[in-house]
């Protein structure tokens, strides 16, 4: 029992223990009153957390006026809502500006994730 307790304690101290990879996420830049944001919320949001994409890059909603996460390096300031920005280790890996509808959203996100996926060392 003591070994199990020690192992559980060590696991809680490990970075990222018990949660999705914090290094990769999808930022949704949104604003109140945006009809395309509401459409995305109705068509995609219920499916996203359980999708392969959602497990690989958990969603974080951010108002267009911020605040933005500390240490975030974006290629440029978002000006369209919604804008979806794939982030890895605080760096922008690519984005989808606007909501292209459910079929194209998944297709564009898959392309973005495949093209910009961090390559394993070795």
Question: Features of this protein?
Answer:
alpha+beta; 4 helices; globular; 34% helix; 122 residues; Glutaredoxin
**Oligomer designation:** single chain
- Structural classification: alpha+beta
CATH architecture: 3-Layer(aba) Sandwich
Low-confidence stretches: 1-21
Tell me the β content: 15-25%
Separation of termini? 38 Å
CATH superfamily: Glutaredoxin
DSSP helix count?
4
Sheet with the most strands: spatial strand order: 2-1-3-4
Helix content: 25-40%
- Total strands: the figure is 4
Question: What's the short story on this structure?
Answer:
With about 120 residues, the chain is α+β, with helices and mostly antiparallel strands. About 35% of the residues lie in helices and about 20% in strands.
Topology:
Blueprint (H helix, E strand, L loop, with lengths): L1 H12 L10 E7 L4 H9 L8 H5 L2 E5 L19 E6 L2 E7 L4 H15 L6
Parallel strand pairs: 1-2
Antiparallel strand pairs: 1-3, 3-4
Structure write-up:
The chain is built from four helices and four strands, in the order αβααβββα. By secondary structure, it is an alpha+beta fold. It has one domain: Glutaredoxin (3-Layer(aba) Sandwich), CATH 3.40.30.10. It has a four-stranded mixed β-sheet, with helices on one face. The termini are far apart.
